[in-house]
Each structure stands twice: as structure tokens, then as C-alpha cells.
Specification:
The structure is a homodimer. Helix content of chain A is 34%, strand content 16%. By secondary structure, chain A is an alpha/beta fold. Chain A folds into 2 domains: 123 residues, Nucleotidyltransferase, domain 5, CATH 3.30.420.40; 152 residues, 2-Layer Sandwich (Nucleotidyltransferase, domain 5). In chain A, strands 3-2-1-4-5 form a 5-stranded mixed β-sheet. In chain A, strands 8-7-6-9-10 form a 5-stranded mixed β-sheet, sandwiched between helices. In chain A, a hairpin with a 3-residue loop joins strand 1 and strand 2. Chain A is globular, with a radius of gyration of 19 Å. At the A-B interface, helix 6 of A face helix 6 of B.
């Protein structure tokens, strides 16, 4: 179609906001990276971008936690984030007011799950989990073909895990839950534990074995709870070369041939995969969110 | 309506099958308890029951794991259960053949979640989790108003948990995963750890504090993954007097005022509850399954 409407996608992260206007992975123009400063400054630049690139609707995949209850007076706001300046920030209001188009908000990981399901590694699946392991750890999901929200939205990074303090005395750095999944396995936890950023740790460093154990344990827990057809792992740490094969191996051992969970390397190669959209899952998920809101597929 | 059709509900457990014919919690006739022996003997008695009490359809909530993939040649069969005689048992075929009515199968905990959602403590909620803690540990869920299946069905009893071996040297008794949730917190694990059945442990026994810790950790993990509006806890151990208040207390501390999760005792009293249907959630869930299959509400 020549006149296919153009949609806006925003991946709103703690260090940058990525904005794009387009119709899918082959048509996003040149996405713009905007530094995350104060809500006023950053959202101001986002508005400027979309004034230059008019769209029929905007989807935002954002860091959180978020208030996603349409009946709430703080609907569309960021809630208890450790990032002081963004606590209570309204993400929907300013854009909707300035640009006068529908604006939809979801978590960065739910947006990424939707992006991967629409165009990426989970294309057409009804039940998909997207896990990101970067500065933090998070998970989003498509269940029965729809994004998982429940009473609010998943916060999978905060699930609890086995933690052998003799092997790993690092206490965990989640300000809320100490040694939850994010507290043990995020890029920030790796930096604090080993004294340097994850990307500087050589492939044979014991950090990777430990990281793979935490990822396998977390993914097993998510898998037995949600029973997904596939789990996509993204994020700067999650996509580190060599990490996913190690996680797959450990996950086969953890499932231990139980029920219908993947019990062979071949099944596991199909079950646990890298993003099909590279680092664009969230931004493209934003476009998919906007599409769904303006022109629902069902 | 005078001519409302009557449906059959079966709670299929490792020690007994409970069968009933009716239309809801106020009309189940006298449910019959049939001992779980071999599939042939037990299913034979189930058939005899429904020959005496004709129904328009039958819903079964069963122990598992189950093959719930309609495209599979072993659809409706029990798969990798430790109960040798029931491994590979076909639950749907014999009933459908003998009684010539639609037979629907789901997990005992999914059936219980549906029962509680239809008539019990989760009435009308869109997102509900049902956790049972009895001989084993399991969880079922309603997500977006529908039972959660994904690629197979949840096996929440097998999620992984923090396990402090100094405090609790019991290694866990799950034949597949050792110290998973079920391996640490089931009635069977309690019996093995303390040397007597849970119901014989006095209220001030340290067993209950430990059990509450494992239940709180598991429920927190399920809650951050599924984001339910409410969690119903059933089962012989789960409904032990005094246990749930202890779990609530620990869960408030674990969530630690994060995101939209319950952060006060009042919220928690509403979030974590006993079954509204007592020990009939699974059997009534079977009736609800049959109703949905024969006369879908949407």
C-alpha cells in the first residue's frame, strides 16, 4: 500500500530514548538517539522529532515500573524508579498534548516481546517471553497472542533465585530485593561483583559461567510459570558472544527431561534464541504498539 | 432455568478421583470419591458414575504433566508422572468412548483456578493464580480471562527458589529438580524433612516458619512473572490454620513496596486468600471446564 500510515516508536531507556517513524523493520527512516536527561528536556526533544516526522500514533516501550491502569489518575506515569528525576514522570500526557495523536505506553520488555512477535524471532507465536539482560534484567511476554499485563505488568527481573553465597558472596545490588534475579545477574551486578564492565571480562572468565547459571535458573522459572513456546534473550549482556549456548546447556540440565519442556540441544536451540530484530526490538515494538492501538489487527 | 444442562466435574488426584454432576457450587449432588488404583479400574468406576448420572459434558482437572496439545497423537494423556501405572494413561479417550459426550482435560490447578474464578475467591477477575500446596506443589492461572496454557501448561511447582542449606540442609525431594519449590515445600518434603506428616507438626514448630518462607518466595516469583490481581492458596498444607497470615507478612517484606505489588497488610489480605470453594475448587473447576466447552460464555 502506498498510503500506509506511518507510526512512531520510542524505546525509552535510562541512558537514551530512541525514536523512529515508520511501518516496520525495513522502513524506520533514521532513528534518533536522545540522551536521557530530565523528563522536560528529553520529552521536549522527542516532541521535536515527531513534529519533524508526523505519525498516526506513537508507541512507547519504557523503563519502569509504570502505571498502566487506564483508570488510575497517574496512568502513563513512571512510578517507583530509582532514577529520582523520572519518578512520577508522565510519559503519555506531554506527547499527546503536543502532537495530538494516540500515545500508547508499555514496558520496554513488553514492547520488545511484541516487536519480536510481530517481525522477529517470535513471529506468529501465541506465547513468547522476551528477557533483557543489560544494565538491569527484565521480562515481557505475549500470552495467548496478547501482551501480558495482569494487574500491572510483569517485573520478572525481581523474581527470586537460588544464590550460593559460598560460590558467589556478592550480596546482590537490587535496592528493593537485594539478590533477586536483577540483583545478581544484571550488567550492573556484574560490574560491581568483578570490578569492571561485563564487556571487558574475557570469554574464559568465571563470571560467564556464573552469569549463565543465573540466566538459566531465571529462565527455567519463567518457563515453568508461563509455559512459552520460545524465549528471546536480548540486552547488552544477554547477547554477549558465547553466553546463550552456555545458558542452553544449563537449561537442558535444569529441565531434566520434565514434561513438555525442551529436553534436547536441538529443541533448546529453537526454544532459547537471540532477538531477530537485534537491538531494535523495543523501538520496533513501539511501532507495533502504535499500529495495534490505531488499527487493531483483530 | 429448569432445563439447565448438567455437567460432570472430575478432580483426578494421585490418591482419589472425585466425581460430581451438577451446575455449580450449590448443585453438585453427592460427589463420589473413587480410589486411584490402575487407570483401567479407576476410569471404569468413573464411567459407572456418569452412566448413573448423565451429563452434557465432562471436565477433568488432573495431576500431570499432561499432553494438552490437540494436534498431538497422545493428546489427553498423562506424560512423565512418577506414578508408574499412570504414565501414558489416556484420560479423555475411555470416557469419551463409553459416554459419548465432550470431555475436556486440564491440570488440577488450572481447573481449580477456573473454579475459583467462576464461583469462588477470584470471581470475575481477569488475572488470577491458584497455588496448591498438598502432597505436591502446583500452580494454575487465568490470564486475560483465559486459562494459561502456552506451549503446554504451567508447572509452577518446579520453579527454583533460594535455598539456604545451612538453615535447611534437606536437599529437596523432587525426582527431577531436587530443591525446586515442590522439592522444598510440598507436604511430602515436609514429611521427609521433619519425620512426620505436616498435619502432626504443632503450630509453634519451626517447620511452619520455613514453609512460610518457601511459600512467600515462590508466590513472589509467580507474582512478579504473571502480575495477577489475586493469588488463591489451596491444598492440605496450604490451608493449614495460621499459615497464610505468616506468608502474607513475609510477602509484604519481600515485595518491599515495589511497583504496584501489595505493600500493606490490608492490600495483602485481599491479594493472598484461601479458596472460596474450600476443597471443591478442582471438582467445580471441572464442571466449569465442561460448561465452557459445551456452551462457551463468549
Amino acid at each position: 500500500m502506498d498510503n500506509q500510515p506511518v507510526y512512531g516508536g520510542i524505546e525509552a531507556g535510562g541512558t537514551k530514548f530512541v525514536c523512529a517513524a515508520g511501518t516496520g523493520p525495513d522502513d524506520t527512516g533514521t532513528p534518533e538517539r536522545i540522551e536521557t536527561r530530565t523528563p522536560k528536556e528529553t520529552l521536549g526533544e522527542v516532541i521535536t522529532f515527531f513534529v519533524k516526522h508526523p505519525v498516526a500514533g506513537i508507541g512507547i516501550g519504557s523503563f519502569g515500573p509504570l502505571d498502566l491502569d487506564p483508570a488510575s489518575p497517574t496512568y502513563g506515569h513512571i512510578t517507583t524508579t530509582p532514577k529520582q528525576e523520572w519518578r512520577g514522570a508522565d510519559l503519555i500526557g506531554p506527547l499527546q498534548e503536543a502532537l495530538d495523536v494516540p500515545v500508547v505506553l508499555d514496558t520496554d520488555v513488553n514492547a520488545a516481546a511484541l516487536g519480536e512477535r510481530t517481525w522477529g524471532a517470535g513471529k506468529g507465536l501465541s506465547d513468547l517471553v522476551y528477557v533483557t539482560v543489560g544494565t538491569g534484567v527484565g521480562g515481557g511476554a505475549v500470552v495467548n497472542g496478547k501482551l501480558l499485563h495482569g494487574v500491572t505488568h510483569p517485573e520478572m527481573g525481581h523474581l527470586l533465585l537460588p544464590h550460593d553465597l559460598q560460590r558467589d558472596p556478592f550480596p546482590g545490588d537490587c535496592p528493593y530485593h537485594g539478590d533477586c534475579w536483577e540483583g545478581l545477574a544484571s550488567g550492573e551486578a556484574m560490574r560491581l561483583r568483578w570490578g569492571c564492565p561485563a564487556e571487558e571480562l574475557p570469554p574464559d572468565h568465571p563470571a560467564w559461567e556464573l552469569e549463565a547459571d543465573y540466566l538459566a535458573a531465571g529462565i527455567m522459572t519463567v518457563a515453568v510459570t508461563l509455559s512459552p513456546q520460545r524465549v528471546v534473550v536480548g540486552g547488552g549482556v544477554g547477547t554477549s558472544p558465547g553466553l546463550l549456548p552456555l545458558v542452553r546447556e544449563k537449561l537442558v540440565a535444569l529441565f531434566n527431561d520434565y514434561g513438555a519442556f525442551p529436553n534436547t540441544t536441538r529443541d533448546m536451540n529453537d526454544f532459547l534464541v537471540l532477538p531477530g530484530l537485534g537491538d531494535r526490538s523495543g523501538m520496533l515494538g513501539g511501532i507495533a504498539l502504535a499500529m495495534e492501538a490505531v488499527a487493531p489487527s483483530e
